[in-house]
Amino acid sequence: MILSRHERMIARRYLLPGKGEGFIFLVAGISLFAVMLGVAALVIVMSVMNGFRAELFDKVVGLNGHAVIQAYGGRLDNWRPLLEQARSTPGITSATPLIEQPLMASREGRVEGVLLRGMRLEDIRNNPLIRDNVRAGSLDSLEPGVQNVAIGSRLAEMLGVTVGSQISLISPEGRSTPFGTMPRIVGYTVTAIFEIGLYDFDRAYVLMPMEEAQSYLMLGDAIGMIEVQTADPDRAGEIVAPLAAVAPPGTIVTDWRQMNSELFEALQVERVAMFVVLSIIVLVAAFNILSSLIMLVRAKYRDIAILRTMGATRGGIMKVFMTVGVTIGVLGIIAGLILGAIFLYFRQSVVVFVQFVTGQNLWDPSIRFLTELPSKTDPVEVVAIVLMALTLCVVFTFFPARTASRTDPVQVLRYE
Fold it and tell me: Which of 78, 82, 65 has the alpha carbon at shortest distance from 247?
């Protein structure tokens, strides 16, 4: 939409408050503010929802893999041929043997449910989620036969332990005696404390070398499962399908979608619902632009009639008012993007401040899963939000602009 010099001058004049036009300018300012809030809210919420899903996916899949191969009884014997078969399957980038077993851990009268995880030493030290998130101690102290373990930070808090403390692991599957099966209780030294950032993992995991876990659980050479990483997580089910077809009887292959389907489907539904709900804010802002332009057209009927008698065309008048409405919308969109970016940059500080003011815990990791408010901005979504807001502003600007362009100067000036 190209404006001539005098049309730009008129549009600029209408954007600024004139004598007796303070109320119209106030409504236009409210319209701009509403667009800004609507766009900022959409950008913030969608970025947080994307970040929440991405963080959950990275941490859950980073520890549990894109798929797992396990036996119905939880004990995978003769697993080495299956491991080699998995590694040779096209699309699978790595396959890792491991052991997972729910147990109890105790220290000085405190007892907590834990998840024992046994991994090969090279897999522990090469896993970035574990290696890069050690908060105290060192993973180098984990060696088979020395009874050292690494535990999550939340579990350390609940048990009241630090590096060097002793904990006891309690397994109900112990030795058989004439009085029944006695629980197996073994003491271990905590030599590392890690914090992955996912509450359920940090409050439950006890990590030890796989050989140590096999010895404690009396598994012999058996393992619990094989964790599989694929080249494309979205195609994990398709990639591991050939492996499932040739797996031994009693063995199942489960991908990450099946293991966490309820959680990720709920996140997707909530994401769509929040987008629809917050889009209403932008819709209301567009209605505000409509009302402010209607009032502006009403106030400028005489000016429009004079401009028409001086040779201004219907199209020129329409372009002037379209420019006014679209400019309000564009300025609101730009301000909304800036506000959204600032909020996302300082998001954790904002959460802490609001918690301090209200005295409420707004981000309880036991409920939210993650220890910090996440964020991941998708440029495609931001463009979609901008286009949606701009389209609504243009549509709602069109009607008062068309009304202004159809003003009959003869009828207006006759009664002025």
Answer: 82
